Fold:
Amino acid sequence: MTKTSSFGTTKREGHNSAAFYERNIQNFFRQPASAAELAVEIPAHTGWADQIYHQSSTSMTPLPDNGIALAFTSPPYNVGKDYDDDMGLEAYLDLIRNVAKEVYRVLRPGGRYVINIANLGRKPYIPLHAFFYSLHLELGFLPMGEIIWQKGEGASSNCAWGSWLSAKAPRLRDIHEYLLVFAKQDYSRPDKGQSSIERDDFMEATLSIWKIPPESAQKIGHPAPFPVALARRVIKLYSYINDVVLDPFAGSGTTCVAAKQLARHYVGFDISAEYCALANERLGMQIQQELIISRTFEQELENFEADLI
Ligand SMILES: C[S@@+](CC[C@H](N)C(=O)[O-])C[C@H]1O[C@@H](n2cnc3c(N)ncnc32)[C@H](O)[C@@H]1O
Structure:
């Protein structure tokens, strides 16, 4: 058995981290709920899942409490896309907070909320992800980790470097966004389920930098879609087969498409009728056309059944 030492340790098998988790810094964070608090009734998915709702996610009235295993979303960044209002920071964070309260309500114990967010601008640099941390911790979410989504290599064609070869005003050129990972009430799922992630995917997905190319807005017909491959990786890592996956800012429905491909149920919300129609169209389409990894819903089920044998 190894333990956390002043010099770290290279062996992780049988590692005892108890001393680390007894340190005073831990007191700042909400502790996982008791077994009694975790033992709530989970509603069946029938009647409300596998639908896109044309409705604001600040009030997800069709959804019962405790029915969602994973929420994955990319909120509006408030940067001037055609669906963005010109909100001040406080009004923007109020929207994110109101949606987060609803996500907390509908998540089941041990459910996860994964939020894709980028920081904005340079003068000032607006660290949205830092504001998102405070807000979600205040609401009681448990922080589970953070993924850097690397969207490009050297951004060679991007010349927004500020002062060329000069220290006068060099600017960083972001080639990444964040995925913030939170949990409701427990870091571990109290229930048992069937996962559908294979060894190599698991090894890659549990590293904190994910290199996945961005999606083309033009190809999808939405100003800011994320790639199906990103949603697939989140869903495979953080949910079981047959779970219900929610996207409260569904846009073109990417999260829902990935959930359907992976034999999960889905629910999406968007305030735009046009994007709800687009999401429904993508969900009804031959999903294979959109696959970066060519694995269909049926294949996923076959793999799942083969694993059981
Ligand atoms: C960044 S986009 C999501 C894109 C999505 N991940 C995809 O792959 O297409 C944010 C979406 O949030 C929607 N939206 C903005 N405010 C909303 C609200 N209060 N409730 C639900 N959707 C909202 C916008 O219409 C927009 O489609």
